[in-house]
Amino acid sequence: xxxxxxxxxxxxxxxxDAVLAHPPERWEARATLAGGPHAPGAARRxxxxxxxxxxxxxxxxxxxxxxxxxxxxxxxxxxxxVHAGTDVDLVCRLEPDTGALVVEIxxxxxxxxxxxGAADPGHGTPEYGRGLRLxxxxxxxxxxxxxxxxxxxxxxxTGEDHPDPDDSGPGSGSGAGSGSGDSLATAGLLAPVPRxxxxxxxxxxxxxxxxxxxxxxxxxxxxxxxxxAALTGQLLxxxxxxxxxxxxxxxxxxxxRRTDGGTGVPGPRLARVWHASEDHMENLRLALxxxxxxxxxxxxxxxxxxYPWPAEALDPPxxxxxxxxxxxxxxxxxxxxxxxxxxxxxxxxxxxxFRLVAGGRPLxxxxxxxxxxDALPGEVTGLVEDLSRRVALAIGAARQYARQVTISAVLQRxxxxxxxxxxxxxxxxxxxxxxxxxxPSGDFYDLFPAGDxxxxxxxxxxxxxxxxxxxxxxxxxxxxxxLAREGYRVADVLDRLNxxxxxxxxxxxxxxxxxxxxxxxxxxxxxxxxxxxLYGELVPxxxxxxxxxxxxGHPLPLLLGPDGDVRTVARPQTLLGVVEDExxxxxxxxxxxxxxxxxxxxxVTERRCGTRQFDDGDGLAAALAGCAGLSAxxxxxxxxxxxxxxxxxxxxxxxxxxxxQAERPS
Length: 666
Description:
The structure is a single chain. By secondary structure, the protein is α+β, with helices and mostly antiparallel strands. Helices cover about 35% and strands about 25% of the residues. It is built from 15 helices and 25 strands. Strands 14, 15, 16, 17, 20 and 21 form a six-stranded mixed β-sheet that branches. A five-stranded antiparallel β-sheet has the order 1-2-3-5-4, with helices on one face. Helix 2 packs antiparallel against helix 3 and helix 10 runs parallel beside helix 11. The protein is elongated, with a radius of gyration of 34 Å. It starts with 12 loop residues before the first helix and ends with a strand.
């Protein structure tokens, strides 16, 4: 962590003995937190639990950190989550000799500096909220330590008073009363009145564009609409509002919808509630669920709409510290020149509802609220409106991704056989790994009975990926089965499949592309869909299995003998879907007991490690030769593992392999 300045306190001998009686690990609490919206709350809970345990043990300093430490931990963890986006390591430690509390927050993005209000000569003067100003006001010292692969921000709290480094006027420093300098500094950063308007002007003048740019980057990479809602809450609170809530209008029929008064009328679901104080969040959620925001039939018409202040949750009568109701306001005032809405009589703040609309489609509503004011400043309203557009775009993108994942999952289930056939006298093993776990693979396989004592197998790879490739596979696999069961020979099957790809498959795949990506640009005609395929027929007989196969633009199959000898058993032929009226030929050989046939896609042979490929120098044949004597299942697993181990990163292409092994007599 680097050297931390310390202020030593003198301990009496009896206190020193008590301190040393506790092992070092009792002075420290550690945790790794997922880099998400729940990290700050989890960090605060861990700190408070540790402080209680330390206080029960009588450790000096455990009773002095209080809420200041919780605020510091919350700000540092939020800073790490929002700006680094990685998991966060939290360490809280008491110093035995001084009783000071040291907090360390480490993230896995060492290239990003922590955000504060300091000037950056290379990029203007960005401002990212109150975070490190507040940390500086509450802590005796703080700093940043960079290590290879990690960055640590640490802060040291002694429980003593420290003046606000940004304040030199009256009210700063160590005024009358215990902790007056520290309290005033913190109040100046947090309180909405009287310094909030001044901070709004300062922040909006310097940091609004940076805030929107960072928010856009953060939201654009999210593929889940609920995570977008959670991040929106953290972006808005407490920078621009004391609380916010997001309602989402679900597109799927009935899912996540609520009904009004038992009438069955579908309504939005309350996806996220966020408040600057955790203590208010549950009551606020319960109150907001009863009052969904108004829905305009024309979502593009008008700006933000007034939203009733949830007084029952935030301003219950007699609650200590509740803000006084705003006065001089009239009910129903709409946003005016100030950009806000006057709070109605008896309310303790003001709230506005912003519609979330993307591509002309309403997606939900964002509501923000501020306590102790009767209107939101126009600049704040405008900034929230800009952010709401970005939130809507992120939600729309997340929903589009979810739709594509659903379609892809349905397609994937229909592209591969539910079960592979069992062939008398043979064992088989399959490996199929799409590189895109959320979409359909361009690789496919099949092993099925063709009638008259014949079984057929196929391993193929379609040019491209996604729905277009899925359409080609969806046509090719049923045609293979149909032609095989009609009694066509291997070569004839490939001849007819080649013509199909040149006709129907191209048209169907282009239709799928237009449905997903929009109209084809001028000059972009239909694209030919290539298919590499290894297709064969198996006929068991006494003493072995007769195999006839053909490889159309596909990696050649390898035959492993019981003695470890490996050879190819086909010759290369043209890809399917390239040359019209191409004539294919099949080759026949026999699989004797103990022989193993290995069929793979180019995801195996072309697996890369730098400039090298797995099959360079007959690498696949060498790997197969080392599998002599193994069962079909073990051979498939060993080849799969060697392919994965060949490169330092996960495979970048789909991977499929089929192992067929003639059994030895029992």
